[in-house]
Each structure stands twice: as structure tokens, then as C-alpha cells.
Write a structure and sequence with these properties.
- The structure holds two protein chains of two kinds.
- Chain A is an alpha/beta fold.
- Chain A contains ten helices and ten strands.
- Chain A has a single domain, classed as Rossmann fold (3-Layer(aba) Sandwich).
- Chain A has helices at residues 52-58, 89-95, 110-120, 127-137, 141-144, 157-169, 187-200, 213-219, 237-242, 247-253; strands at 12-23, 26-37, 41-45, 69-77, 80-81, 96-99, 175-179, 205-209, 222-227, 230-236.
- In chain A, strands 6-7-8-3-9-10 form a six-stranded mixed β-sheet, sandwiched between helices.
- In chain A, strand 7, helix 7 (187-200) and strand 8 form a beta-alpha-beta unit.
- In chain A, helix 6 runs parallel beside helix 7.
- The two termini of chain A are 32 Å apart.
- Chain B is an all-alpha fold.
- Chain B has two domains: 6-51; 56-290, MetI-like fold (Orthogonal Bundle).
- In chain B, 75% of the residues lie in helices and 0% in strands.
- Chain B is built from twelve helices and no strands.
- Chain B has helices spanning 6-9, 12-48, 54-58, 71-102, 107-120, 124-138, 145-169, 173-181, 186-215, 218-223, 243-251, 256-290.
- In chain B, helix 8 runs antiparallel to helix 9 (186-215).
- Chain B is globular.
- The chains are: A alpha/beta, B mainly alpha.
- The A-B interface holds A 60, 62, 65, 67, 90-91, 93-95, 97-98, 100, 102, 104-107, 116-117, 120-121, 151, 153, 164, 167-168, 171 and B 104-105, 172, 174-185, 188, 192-193, 197, 290-293.
Chain lengths: 258, 293
């Protein structure tokens, strides 16, 4: 398998059109338009405070939980505007999963962590099977199969984060948004998660925010570079990192600022 | 030439002595409360123990000290606290969940919050007057244990709400976000994750609030709880008395023997209180072991 060769063009699953997100009167994301291709990994990079996490949260309506946020423009999921008045944000979040910066398993058993979302969303199948397949897909099954009854909080940081990934994929989402999923992990755990991302992209589309440029270069097919709330450049990862078209991008990926 | 360090070292002995002095002052401050309480307890225990025999718990009050018992008051208190818990837990926790999880920041909610904080500091006699006007007279519940419990509910509701809110606030927001990101509704999130995580704190707060209600006398006297009751309540509409009222009644009698009975009553009240506080500590301790983030 060629990791990050030129990505194959695929259909757009998620896109935004002139998306602006404001905290009060401060625009954290300004007038961004981009297309996220299906079954590939798109990285969002940029210096701290550039709006990458805000942009990510705009894709599953998680900004709704922050006070004084207003969103303009469109975020389209398979052509449907996520901010249209007839869209239920709960349904949006069921279909577009999220993994957070700090692992946040529920203070419940490993089993309940994975099974809960399915059961509240009306899952009628075999929960045991679902938990096993989800944990297998998250490359965690072998480590936790004997401790499904133990608290999710008893696992190591890296295991907790994979548990959070298993929890997200138990819902069979179309898309998984990851907000710096490795920033609280050690290098070994980070490597495991990165390996996992390659397996997951066969089935899911992944958008990952990272401020680790090596990580973006290693795992992603596409890269969006944001600076001060604006999209500076979006393109194939290889191109962004080897021959960026903008000076600002080049300065950032070569470590001159950020 | 002067030694550069000399001007700095000179006042050290004085500073040391001042430090030691304050160490002692704070130690005395700490022990003042503890020692006074210990003396009080020793005195009460010495007076009360001889009266704490089996029939003290099974007898009704009597003009004759040897035959007087605390049965009516103990059962009255159990009824009172049971009903108070029944009313104050759902309302208090419900209000806390609304304020903490549902309510946004609006002037109305700020007003409600300020009011609750103020109500927590309102003297209990005021609640007694309110209970008399509202439950005893207007709702015509009479001097029943139900009217008493409703009054006590009003009294401890602010404290219950505040304690429950603090417990809810202590649940990390990342847990809520995790649930929301999985397509959970607000109620599913609160029901499955926030409430269980906050429950130990809520329980502790409620038990402490109920312990306060057990010791309250003023509002009960205000709503007209009886001081001489020769029966145990059989239902919420029955008249009643409670431990502090019985103690007050005994302590205000001229005969010396009734002092002993009052002391014994205090021991029973303290026993109930300490048991409840121990339960609160146990719940908190147990939850600290099982939940760490």
C-alpha cells in the first residue's frame, strides 16, 4: 500500500461554502469553502488559535454547545445543509462521529462505553457482537477482551483513546471527526492510532485536526492549511508539504512559524 | 566595607518567634470548638445515659419521669424526615438539573439563582410563618405531619438545590460532550452519565440538608406541632411531635428528672444525626474510589 501517494479523486461527502463561525463578534472561521472527499483522510493544520477545531466542530454541530456562537454560510453533508432549520443536530451527530483531544471515556465499563450509544439510538441487534466488532475495528479487542467489565477509566491513555474511537464507530458513522486525537498521548500510542487511521479509512471518512505537521504528512491524503481563521491552501498532502503554492504555507510546513 | 548579607539576617529570631506565636494561636482556635463540644457531649452523656433504657424508646411521654419515653417524638421525626425527603429530593434535584443543564444565561435565571442563594440564608422561623399561612391555614392541612414536612421541604430546598448544582457542576464537561457527540439527546446525556456521576455529591448534600431539618424546632413550633403527644402518626394527616420539640418540652419543666430525660433525648437526636452524617461521608468516600478522571 502506498501511503500518501497522489490521492485518488473520490466523491465529496462533506463540504462547506463560505462558512463563517463567530464567537460573539470575533470570527474564528472566516469564509471557508472546501470539499472533503469520501473514504480518505483529510488533515486540518495550522498554528494555535487558527480556527481548526472550530471548523471541525462546525461539521457535527458541536459548536452549538458553546455560548454565543453564530454560524453563517453552509456546511453540506452529502449535499444537505447541516444548519438548515429542518435538520436535527442530534441526528447529525449520530451520523458524524467525533473523537476528542483528551480521551473521555464514560466512567462506566468498557462494554457500556461501546454499547451505550447504540442502545440509545435504538439498536436492535446483538450488543455483544457489536461491542466485539467495534473494539476489533479500533484495534483494542485483544487488549480488553478479558476486562470488558472494568471501568473504561482504568485503561491507559492510548487505550482510552482507542476506546473512544470504538465508541464512535459502534454507531457506524459515515464520518469521524478527530480533534488532535494524539496530542495527549505518548509516541507509541500515537503510532498505534495512526496505524489504525489507515485501517479505518477503508470504511470511514476521517477529518483530523492536528498541530503536529509530521502527523499530517504521515497519515493524511488531503491537507487544509488554516491561518487566522482563513483557509490558506487546500490540496493533496504531498503537494502541500513538498511544493505549496503559497508562501505562508511553505513557511508553516517548513517550521518558520507556528 | 559592610557585609552585604548582614542587614538581611538580623530580624530572623523575631520572625521565628512571631511564627511560633501564630502557630499556637491557631492551635488554640482549633481546640476551642473541639473542647467545648467535648465538654458539652460529656455533660449530656453523663446526664442522659441513665435514662437511655429500653422503655425510653417504647414509652410515650408522661407526667412521671420514670415512665416517660421518646416513642412519639422519634416516630414523628422519622415521619417528618421521610416525607421531607420524598418531597425535597425530586423537586430539589429537578430544579438543580434545570438550572445547571438546561437553563441558558438569561436575566430570569440569574434572578432565580440569586433568590435561591438568599433563601438559603433565610431564618427558619420565616419558613414556619410561611408554612402556617400556606399549608396549615390556606391548604387546610392542619397541624399534620404533612404540613410539617412541606414546611421543612421549603426550608431545605435552597440548600438541596445549591448542593445538587455543585455536584452536577463537578461532572467534567467532556463527559457531556462525549455523549452529545454520539447522538444522545440532552435528557439521555443527563440520565445516563451526568446524573449517575453527580449522584454521590447530590446524596451527600441531601443528607446534610435533611440533618439540618431534623434539628429544626422553630418552624415546627410555628406551625403548631404538639408538645405532648401520646400516639405515633399513622398517616401523613396525623398530628405529631418531633425530637427537638420533645427535648425542649422536657428541658423547660421544673423537675430535675426531666433534665435527664432531655439529655437522653439529645443523645437520641445526636445518634440519628451522626448516623446520617456517617452515611454521607461513606457515600462520598465510596464514590471517590470508584470515579476518577
Amino acid at each position: 500500500m502506498v501511503r500518501n501517494g497522489a490521492p485518488v479523486a473520490s466523491e465529496t461527502i462533506l463540504s462547506c461554502r463560505n462558512l463563517t463561525v463567530r464567537y460573539g463578534s470575533v470570527a474564528a472561521v472566516q469564509d471557508i469553502s472546501l470539499n472533503i472527499p469520501e473514504h480518505q483522510i483529510t488533515a486540518i493544520i495550522g498554528p494555535s488559535g487558527c480556527g481548526k477545531s472550530t471548523l471541525l466542530r462546525a461539521f457535527n454541530r458541536m459548536n452549538d454547545f458553546i455560548q454565543n456562537v453564530s454560524t453563517e454560510g453552509q456546511a453540506l453533508y452529502r449535499g444537505e445543509d447541516l444548519y438548515a432549520s429542518d435538520i436535527d443536530p442530534v441526528e447529525v451527530r449520530r451520523r458524524i462521529g467525533m473523537v476528542f483531544q483528551k480521551p473521555n471515556p464514560f466512567p462506566k465499563s468498557v462494554f457500556r462505553n461501546v454499547a451505550w450509544a447504540a442502545s440509545i439510538n435504538g439498536f436492535r441487534g446483538n450488543l455483544n457482537e457489536l461491542v466485539e466488532t467495534s473494539l476489533r475495528k479500533a484495534a483494542l479487542w485483544d487488549e480488553v477482551k478479558d476486562k470488558l467489565d472494568q471501568s473504561g477509566l482504568a485503561l491507559s491513555g492510548g487505550q482510552q483513546q482507542r476506546l473512544c474511537i470504538a465508541r464512535a464507530i459502534a454507531l457506524e458513522p459515515d464520518l469521524i471527526l478527530m480533534d488532535e486525537p494524539c496530542s495527549a498521548l505518548d509516541p507509541a500510542s500515537t503510532a498505534r492510532i495512526e496505524d489504525l487511521l489507515f485501517e479505518l479509512k477503508e470504511r470511514y471518512t476521517i477529518v483530523i485536526v492536528t498541530h503536529n505537521m509530521q502527523q499530517a504528512a504521515r497519515v493524511s491524503d488531503w491537507t487544509a492549511f488554516l491561518s487566522q481563521g482563513r483557509l490558506v491552501e487546500f490540496g493533496a498532502t504531498q503537494a502541500i508539504f513538498t511544493r505549496p503554492s503559497k508562501r505562508e504555507t511553505e513557511d508553516y510546513v517548513t517550521g518558520k512559524f507556528g | 566595607m559592610t557585609n552585604a548579607t548582614a542587614p538581611l539576617g538580623r530580624n530572623l529570631p523575631v520572625r521565628r518567634r512571631l511564627g511560633d506565636l501564630f502557630h499556637i494561636v491557631f492551635l488554640i482556635a482549633t481546640f476551642t470548638g473541639v473542647v467545648l463540644l467535648a465538654v458539652l457531649l460529656a455533660d449530656v452523656t453523663q446526664n442522659g445515659i441513665p435514662w437511655l433504657h429500653g422503655s425510653f424508646f417504647t414509652n410515650f411521654p408522661s407526667r412521671f419521669p420514670e415512665q416517660a419515653g421518646i416513642r412519639a417524638a422519634l416516630w414523628g421525626t422519622i415521619w417528618l424526615i421521610g416525607l421531607t425527603a420524598l418531597f425535597s429530593i425530586p423537586v430539589g434535584v429537578g430544579a438543580a438539573i434545570y438550572l445547571e443543564e438546561y437553563a441558558g444565561r438569561s436575566w430570569l435565571n440569574t434572578l432565580i439563582e440569586i433568590n435561591i442563594a438568599n433563601l438559603a440564608g433565610t431564618p427558619s422561623i420565616v419558613y414556619g410563618i410561611l408554612g402556617l399561612a400556606m399549608f396549615v391555614r390556606w391548604m387546610a392541612l392542619g397541624r399534620s405531619v404533612l404540613a410539617g414536612a412541606l414546611t421543612m421541604t421549603l426550608l431545605i430546598l435552597p440548600v438541596t438545590i445549591i448542593a445538587s448544582r455543585e455536584a452536577l457542576r463537578a461532572v467534567p464537561n467532556s463527559i457531556r460532550l462525549a455523549a452529545f457527540a454520539l447522538g444522545a439527546t440532552k435528557w439521555q446525556t443527563v440520565r445516563a452519565h451526568v446524573l449517575p456521576a453527580a449522584l454521590p455529591g447530590i446524596m451527600t448534600g441531601i443528607i446534610l440538608a435533611l440533618s439540618r431539618a431534623i434539628g429544626e424546632t422553630a418552624p415546627l413550633i410555628m406551625i403548631g406541632a404538639l408538645t405532648f403527644v401520646a400516639f405515633t402518626p399513622a398517616g401523613p394527616m396525623d398530628e405529631f411531635t418531633a425530637l427537638p420539640i420533645q427535648i425542649f418540652n422536657w428541658a423547660s419543666r421544673p423537675q430535675r428528672e426531666f433534665y435527664g430525660l432531655a439529655a437522653a433525648g439529645i443523645l437520641v437526636l445526636l445518634g440519628v444525626l451522626l448516623t446520617m452524617n456517617a452515611a454521607a461521608i461513606w457515600i462520598r468516600h465510596r464514590s471517590q474510589r470508584s470515579m476518577r478522571w
